Amino acid sequence: MTLRTIRIGLWAAVVALALIATAAYFLVKVPGPGQPGTFGAGSYSLVDGNGGPVTEATFKGAPSMLFFGYTHCPDVCPTTLSDMAVWFQELGDEGKPLKAYFVTVDPERDTPAVIKDYVSSVTDRVTGITGTPEEIAKIISAWRIYAKKVPGEDGEYTMDHTASVFLLNSKGEFEGTIAYQEASSVAVEKLRKLLAKA
Predict the structure, then answer these.
(1) Under 8 Å between Cβ of 107 and 13
(2) Distance CA 42, CA 64 (A)
């Protein structure tokens, strides 16, 4: 067995574990739309790719998509970012009120400049967000995100993390999710329903 085959197998295992953890997480912890609870509640002080302030108030005022990932992600994050760009294209003018955010779970490597370059290389419709490890921990806790560092070779590491896109209404409240690699037609229909509530 070659080293390349072993590495591909390990990456596949990491993706599988992330998907399983995400599914288990949502089955246990995430309340349904309109259900009481503190899902998403909390205070944090973050920055976007331009260094502008981002707080819990940022997610209010317009319906939005919220995704947690990191720029060194091998497949889930670039795939999801590309999917989001496609959804915006399919929505066209209908999707103008919709906002989208990519929040890093790896603040040690994802500086404002790094996350801005990463997100903008795919689409200008998604805002990259980062901050200090302490403040990122606060937003991860507020949204009950699963995020765990996985040590690798030569001091490198990857991050296991929640792989779904969160849908937020204009009050910044949880309305549902789009699963990783969910059919584009289904995802766009969910976004249309979200926009209709705005």
Answers:
(1) no
(2) 18
CATH no. for 3-196: 3.40.30.10
CB 163 within 8 A of CB 70: no
pLDDT in tens, 48-100: 999 999 999 999 999 999 999 999 999 999 999 999 999 999 999 999 999 99
| CA angle (74 as vertex; 167, 152 as ends), nearest 5 | 120
Give me the phi and psi of 55, to 5 degrees please.
Answer: -130, -175
Question: Residue 80 corresponds to which tokens in the numbers above?
Answer: 């999801």
Q: What is the DSSP string of 96-161?
A: TT-EEEEEES-TTT--HHHHHHHHHTT-SSSEEEE--HHHHHHHHHHTT--EEEEE-GGG-EEEEE
Task: Determine the length of the chain.
Answer: 198
Where do we find the tokens 């399919």? 90
Task: Tell me the domain boundaries of the chain.
Answer: 3-196
Lowest model confidence (mean pLDDT) among 2-6, 106-110, 135-139: 2-6
- 150 pairs with which residues across the strands? 158
